[in-house]
Amino acid sequence: MSNRRYENALCGIAQKIPPVWMMRQAGRYHKHYQALRQKHSFEDLCKIPELAAEVAFGPVDEFDFDAAILFSDILFPLEALGIGLEYTDSGPRLEFAISDEAAFRRLRSAEDSISFMEFQKRAMSLTRERIPKDKSLIGFVGGPWTLFTYAVSGKHEGNLFLPKTLTKVREKFLDTIVQFLKGNIRLQFEGGADVVLVFDTAGGDLSPDLFREIVLPGIKILAEEFPGKIGYYGRGTSSSHFDVLRGVSALAGFGFDHRWDLREVMKVEKRMIQGNFDQALLFMEKEEFKKTLMRFLAPFSELSPEERVGWVCGLGHGVMPKTPEANVKTFVETVRETFL
């Protein structure tokens, strides 16, 4: 059983109250996560299914989100393919970079490495058991392009000149990672995911032409492998990027960061639309935050349920560390009160 509001959003059924969930809703800001993190490493919280399920359960239990999301990390496919991965206090560290074809040849094949991800399937299954039956369950993977930027540079910041210019290596890597992600996504669905989102946090770093060349083919393959079950979120993307992907009819919908006016998107798109309150504003003092949130919601409340069909209310990106928990709770309650 899934959450009715979230299921309506996926199916394009108009409704008064939109579902609410947040990227990184199970994370460092939350005392439930902090208590577990004092006893276990980040990697153990991800890779030990019982712990991953407990982390995912915490914010659903406390804040009553409409959906839980798999607690994991986008970089594990790189580890599965043979790039050593270590999580340090300063962030993830990869053992070597895919900077040339010789380095690419060190990778395992998708077929030989996919079994590494079985822990995500088990985590999904246990999360499904742990959360209430009337909540939906979201899976996720990193976008192929974003995973390539990490594989080459160890991050997706800066000008990304190497990922953008290593054309031959990129083509081979993307072929491999797309095949791997097909298997990875399948495992998450077998574990009980209602939908799997592709988080392409480096997507907006590409020009629309490169986005069409680099991102579109892989996303099209994944969406058509699981029609109506894959959503796409590209951080920092523009309307030109969005136009490239809108033609992929098999996609379930899209996530948008806070730079977008979702009312304009809703005029042309009736699939799932996720977003997009600015996550930084959750740091406001309580009363100021409530007023700011009400101003954000007011234009949506003027739309009919049919005009905002598919909307999943959340943030433009993930909940940031040290975000006040009280404001997260206020966010969920205020959205439901506004549209009641």
TrEMBL record:
Entry's Gene Ontology molecular function annotations: uroporphyrinogen decarboxylase activity
Pfam families reported for this sequence: URO-D (PF01208)
Domain of life, per lineage: Bacteria
Originating organism: Leptospira gomenensis
Cellular component terms (Gene Ontology): cytosol
Uroporphyrinogen decarboxylase (URO-D) domain: residues covered: 19-28
One GO biological process term: heme biosynthetic process
Record's protein name: Uroporphyrinogen decarboxylase
